[in-house]
Protein: Homoserine kinase
Amino acid sequence: MSVITSITEGELTDFLSAYNLGELQSYQGITEGTVNTNYLLNINHQKYIFTVFEVLNKETAEHYLTLTEFLSKQALSCATPLLDNHQNSIRYIKGKPACLVSFLPGKSNQHPSPENCRQIGLYLAKMHINSQSFKPLSNPMGIEWRTEHALKIFTKLSLDDQQLLQAGLNIQKKIHWDLLPKSTIHYDLFRDNAFFEKDQLTGVIDFYYACFDVMLLDLAIAINDWCTNWQDKKFNISPVHFRALLNGYQTIRPFETLEQQELLLFLQLMSFHFWLTRTVNQHFPPIGESITLKDPNEFKKIFKNWLSITSLKI
Ligand SMILES: Nc1ncnc2c1ncn2[C@@H]1O[C@H](COP(=O)(O)OP(=O)(O)O)[C@@H](O)[C@H]1O
Ligand SMILES: N[C@@H](CCOP(=O)(O)O)C(=O)O
Structure:
């Protein structure tokens, strides 16, 4: 449920008057998504997405929109902002920053094929290579965030889960953060954030966690979601999907030796990360926000699976 801010037709028409796009024919709230309010608009027989930022301020939201403009100029398909008559990508509605972005055709795929995974690997590698020079965005949900929030929920967990939490924090100490290559990373490339048409990737959305950090973080996030066998409740990784995603990535950007050595640590860390973010949201639902709660246990199981593995063949 993601229409947090309800918008009337009059308010929308008023907002759109700054764009000269034509007549608003229809608009419809979008129920998917967790953080922002999204509407699908039909203006002059063209589709657009109207987003109201529920958490981000104007400056931060603008940063992310600039990134999508930058990526689309590098032939990395994504939703890009429309500028109003004064060249602004953000305008206010009901006191909140909001924007209009292009509509990406296609649908997300909850049952990706190895070919879909290969295309996701290619996309990430192209993004990492092309956006190294993009103005760095800091990562507000990195090492410090994990440490601080693990402490915050520690006493709320069982003894077993407290040990698991400690294991997660220990992993981040084993990683050679300063020696690993960095770039601008998506940091949330889950299956619901990529669209396909006839098995071809049409583009990627939701760059609102993007930041400048170690590239392996993106690989680990994508592998944990795209290559997990979600149908059997053991949450094992499908070797075929795993290989396809890695091959796609390495066609464009082969791993450095240290990246090969530390990929397993990142797979462990990022499954721990989403167990943690989801558990934090459960215990401390953000006030005033309408966050859709996701199941932390799925990522707890994936984390435990990765912890039981001692080496990875790449
Ligand atoms: N540019 C776009 N083109 C087509 N559909 C989109 C676009 N942006 C968002 N959507 C739709 O809106 C949903 C929620 O968007 P998302 O960015 O994931 O929201 P949130 O930021 O709240 O997580 C997506 O699952 C998709 O169905
Ligand atoms: N992908 C994350 C949650 C982030 O939510 P999004 O709707 O903004 O992609 C998870 O699955 O926990």
User: Anything to note?
Assistant: The longest strand covers residues 37-43. Strands lie at 24-29, 37-43, 46-52, 91-93, 96-102, 182-185, 194-197, 200-204, 211-214. The domain at 114-307 is CATH 3.90.1200.10 (Aminoglycoside 3'-phosphotransferase; Chain: A, domain 2).
